[in-house]
Design a protein that fits this description.
The complex is a heterodimer.
Chain A: E1 4-8, H1 30-34, H2 39-67, H3 78-97, H4 100-114, H5 122-144, H6 158-162, H7 167-194, H8 207-239, H9 252-286, H10 293-306, H11 322-350, H12 359-376, H13 378-382, H14 384-390, H15 394-424, E2 426-427, H16 430-456, H17 473-503, E3 505-506, E4 532-536, H18 545-559
Helix pairs in contact in A: 2-3, 2-4, 2-5, 2-17, 3-5, 4-7, 4-8, 4-9, 4-15, 5-7, 7-8, 8-9, 8-10, 9-11, 9-12, 9-15, 10-11, 12-15, 12-16, 15-16, 16-17
Chain B: H1 19-50, H2 67-95, E1 103-110, E2 113-117, E3 123-125, E4 127-131, E5 136-142, E6 147-151, E7 156-160, E8 166-170, E9 176-182, E10 194-200, H3 202-212, H4 221-232, E11 257-259, E12 265-267, H5 270-278, H6 301-313, H7 369-377
Parallel strand pairs in B: 1-5, 4-10
Antiparallel strand pairs in B: 1-2, 2-3, 5-8, 6-7, 6-9, 9-10, 11-12
Classes of the chains: A mainly alpha, B alpha+beta.
């Protein structure tokens, strides 16, 4: 643990805090939370809000899944069903996935990992949370006050000219959420460039930071495009501004180009931070430096760059030119390579390490298994000969849930389990957490693997009824059964995490014995992050698996 | 419920010329995915237990970077990816290039039903009858929002977009009844916008056209278009030759290259003709002025399809005076007087039949084949 040179900071009174206070106890009023400029408190605000929206999105998903048990529906009308799957998609994508890992874990950890006092623009950080809450309020008002029935993709001209639901309010919410995303991304980029501690060179940065750097770039470059795209839908709905509707002289497919120009890179906003989390966990619980540090770091940047060049693979059957499709398909195949590099590098990290199967590692390995399936089903869709049949079927639904839920949410859960002691200073029940990791893994596969088969058979997504194709039903029953397990698997962590806040054992500064600056400060950290001046002198992930193994062998020998 | 819990299908039926190659490609990728997936996951599990902290396995000389290994990790997926890409490109280009002599069927999508018109004028809704072993080209458009015409058993799908024609083609290889779906979310009754594709032997198909044709005046699409053409008086300006100063002739127009006044060039395809009717000022042919009124609000998509069919048929130099021969001989002979008008649903100019009425926003929902099927079952 020699990553830092610890020198007592002179003049602690500069921070107006008493040394024994941590960021949680430094002020108890509501005001001290709602007007805080501390990145750690803002991260906690985000944690509470994304969990709430995850619950809402999850309830909508439950409605959708139970309705699909029966081919002719048994609970609701088609209109309600359409509003439910739209609510599920919009809430999960815009209010959970795009935000969860970067705004909770990224916000909390970026300054800690690079040895900074806070993010570069603390007030902007607070503003981004308020923008996010405004977005959430708009989307909730639209959903609960009548609902939206366009699907989360808002395809025109249905969304701009035909839908009678609360489209504009929802779009306004997404628009505001976009600004939250832009400010967060800019804050990350500036912080990583300008606020690294002395000695924290670019190649001493943890891979979590590299992942968030690439994410920040996508947020900053992509989000403005979707913001203006959606604003144009509002204008067309409201003022008949002719942009997308052919009745007015617009082009409906233009919307798809502009929407996916952002929304494909947005997939990487969801997954790159999770990649960062997994890189940290694989190395910390293999107790060995991550394999191919540079390749993983560069592959994040490669993904961020190539991610902007493949949007047309969502549009192989949309009437875009055949030659365009050829180029988009080729680039998509190339984009698969950096993701493959990462998975194999994580696997190789365990080789000759000292693997500890603690709960974050269980979630981490679960992430690898699920992301592997998500990644390997990508080529089916990148290959446009197959995509003509598979596009917009349940095959696609299963594929992106493996990437989004299996990747992003498993990464989020793994990260929360890993850093929970640091964030709260408490330890949760480790064995319950491990078994729950297994439950989520099994429940997830039972939910989404049958959807690959039913999609391959030709079941279209967003279908309420399928009484004309009863051969699809067994797969939907399996899927709903799995979703029930999955739902339980998402509720249990809330229970043991909240329980740990009150009854949990107090965590030491470094309960996992991991390396990294964030483990060198107290748990939970003080408001000013470090009570010492941070100077980095050693490489990142300087574990010594050989010495540790010899030590283990001696201990074992001593016992025997 | 006629499925058996222990013997339910796991594959879609294969009933077109594309199915075999599509499935071969699919299973080739399944093979790759299984190989790499199982290999990687097995390694993860093996490493997790073999190198569990405190196990006796050898840890000497750990590796942290290995350029050669990383090189292979980049090269192997790249090569496999490119091989898959080229195979799939061959299939994709094939699927997107209809044969020249394919039999053309017109489809109009609207919330929430499919209108189908066979070249001889026979119409049907939410069902598509096609002859086996015949190249079929579907030319499609949407009257309202984006839909997608999807036949899983044929492995074909394409969007129907308002304001432009899209095409797809296939050759059915197995007689039978298959699902027809709308696969682009289009509103409340999206899931019920569909029906069946019925593949028949060529003889049965000819019989079906005879018996179920339901043609009021036994007109092909092009003939209905011609009737409209004359009724509206398109020929007043678009004469037999380019001599009349008001508008260029439409004879032999289809497929030629047109130049507009500002020097831009366009191929006169279906979408060009449609646009020139709907918004004539967009692409005014060189040498002519803006004189033609817009027919944007006048015609339904079916009307325009008939007009386009008529103008297309002019490629054989018979336009704009003589009638067009039906593409399927024999049908026209039946009841040439045009009296047998029961169950008419021909797509005709300003048709007053209920099922030819476009469904507009806010209207009562259309009731498709699926809805009636549901009624049967309950």
């Amino acid at each position: 643990m020699s990553t830092t040179v610890k020198t007592e900071v002179g003049g602690m009174e500069h921070f107006h805090t008493k040394p024994e206070l941590n960021y949680l106890t430094n002020g108890h009023s509501i005001r001290s939370w709602l007007l805080t400029e501390d990145h750690k408190r803002i991260a906690m605000l985000y944690l509470i809000s994304v969990s709430f929206f995850f619950l809402i999105g999850g309830l909508a998903a439950a409605g959708v899944r139970y309705e699909l048990m029966s081919p002719a529906g048994n609970m609701m009308e088609s209109e309600t069903y359409n509003k439910l799957f739209t609510a599920h998609g919009a809430v999960m994508v815009f209010l959970f996935l795009l935000v969860a890992v970067p705004a909770v874990l990224g916000n909390f950890l970026i300054p800690l990992m690079i040895g900074a006092r806070d993010l570069a623009f603390p007030r902007l950080n607070l503003l981004s949370w308020y923008l996010y809450m405004a977005a959430g309020t708009c989307i909730m008002l639209a959903t609960l006050g009548g609902g939206v029935d366009t699907g989360w993709t808002f395809y025109t001209p249905y969304s701009s000219m035909y839908s009678n639901s609360n489209v504009s309010l929802t779009l306004l919410g997404v628009f505001l959420g976009g600004f939250s995303s832009i400010t967060t991304g800019m804050n990350f980029i500036v912080t990583i460039h300008k606020m690294r501690a002395p000695g924290m060179t670019w190649f001493r940065l943890p891979l979590f930071i590299w992942g968030h750097y690439a994410t920040g770039v996508i947020m900053l470059l992509g989000t403005p495009v979707v913001a203006i795209t959606l604003l144009c839908v509002i204008f067309e709905r409201t003022f008949q501004l002719p942009i997308y509707s052919p009745e007015l002289g617009g082009d409906p497919v233009l919307f798809q180009h502009m929407f996916w120009f952002y929304s494909h890179p947005a997939v990487y906003i969801m997954i790159l931070p999770a990649f960062g989390v997994i890189s940290e966990i694989m190395t910390a619980f293999s107790r060995k430096r991550v394999f191919g540090y540079h390749m993983i770091a560069f592959s994040s940047l490669a993904i961020a760059f190539l991610g902007f060049l493949v949007w047309g693979h969502h549009m192989f059957v949309s009437s875009q030119s055949m030659y365009q499709s050829v180029i988009f398909s080729l680039l998509t195949f190339l984009l698969a390579v950096p993701s493959a590099i990462k998975v194999w590098n994580w696997t190789a990290t365990m080789y000759k390490g000292n693997v500890v199967l603690a709960s974050p590692m269980i979630y981490g390995i679960g992430f690898q298994g699920l992301f592997l399936v998500g990644g390997l089903t990508g080529p089916f869709l990148a290959s446009y000969g197959n995509d003509i049949h598979l596009t917009a079927t349940y095959f696609v639904v299963a594929h992106f849930h493996y990437v989004m839920v299996g990747g992003s949410i498993m990464g989020f859960l793994a990260g929360i389990h890993f850093w929970w002691p640091k964030m709260t200073g408490r330890l949760y029940n480790e064995s319950v957490a491990k078994w729950n990791g297994l439950l989520v893994f099994v429940g997830f596969n039972l939910t989404f693997f049958p959807q690959f088969i039913v999609g391959w058979m030709g079941m279209p997504r967003r279908y309420h009824y399928y009484y004309f194709a009863p051969e699809f039903q067994p797969y939907h029953i399996m899927s709903t059964l799995g979703a029930s397990f999955l739902g339980i698997g998402f509720v249990i962590p809330v229970i043991y995490m909240v329980h740990s806040l009150f009854k949990g054992e107090r965590a030491t500064d470094n309960p996992w014995n991991a390396h990294g600056l964030e483990w060198n400060t107290s748990s939970p950290p003080p408001t000013e992050n470090f009570r010492y001046k941070v100077i980095v002198t050693d490489d990142v992930y300087d574990y010594d698996p050989v010495a540790e193994h010899e030590n283990d062998m001696q201990l074992a020998g001593g016992k025997a | 419920m006629n499925w058996n819990l222990f013997n339910y299908p796991m594959n879609p039926p294969s009933a077109s010329n594309f199915a075999a190659e599509h499935d071969a490609l699919f299973y080739a990728i399944v093979g790759q995915a299984l190989f790499f997936g199982l290999l990687t996951f097995a390694l993860i599990i093996i490493f997790a237990f073999k190198y569990k902290k405190g196990s006796k396995a050898d840890r000497s000389s750990p590796v942290y970077e290995n350029a050669r290994m990383e090189f292979w990790w980049v090269l192997v997926p790249t090569i496999l990816g490119l091989a898959t890409f080229f195979w799939s490109t061959k299939l994709f280009v094939d699927m997107r290039t209809p044969p020249k002599d394919a039999k053309e069927i017109f489809v109009v999508g609207k919330q929430w039903m499919w209108h189908v018109q066979h070249p001889n004028g026979v119409r049907e809704n939410n069902t598509l009858h096609v002859p086996v072993d015949t190249d079929i080209k579907i030319t499609m458009i949407s009257q309202d929002v984006i839909h997608a015409f999807y036949i899983p058993a044929f492995r074909v799908q394409f969007m129907t977009v308002p304001g432009r024609y899209t095409q797809m083609w296939f050759r059915p290889t197995q007689v039978g009844k298959y699902h027809l779906f709308c696969n682009m979310y289009c509103g409340t009754q999206h899931s019920e916008m569909g029906g069946s594709v019925i593949v028949m032997s060529k003889r049965d198909y000819a019989d079906w056209l005879m018996q179920h044709g339901q043609v009021r005046e036994n007109l092909t699409a092009a003939q209905t278009g011609e009737k409209m053409f004359n009724k509206i008086g398109c020929g007043n300006c678009h004469g037999a030759q380019d001599l009349i100063p008001r508008g260029p002739t439409l004879r032999g127009l289809f497929g030629t290259t047109r130049e507009t006044g500002d020097g831009r060039k366009w191929i006169a395809d279906e979408s060009y003709i449609r646009e020139s009717i709907m918004r004539p000022t967009e692409k005014v042919t060189k040498g002519y002025g803006v004189t033609m009124p817009s027919y944007d609000k006048t015609f339904s998509e079916e009307d325009i399809m008939n007009l386009v069919a008529y103008i297309k048929s002019g490629a054989n130099q018979s336009l704009p005076t003589s009638s067009i021969a039906a593409s399927i001989p024999g049908i026209q002979a039946r009841d040439a007087s045009g009296k047998a008008g029961l169950n008419s649903n021909a797509m005709q100019f300003n048709s007053d039949t209920a099922d030819a009425t476009p469904t507009r926003r806010g209207n009562a929902p259309a009731v498709g084949a699926m809805a009636s099927e549901k009624g049967d079952q309950q």
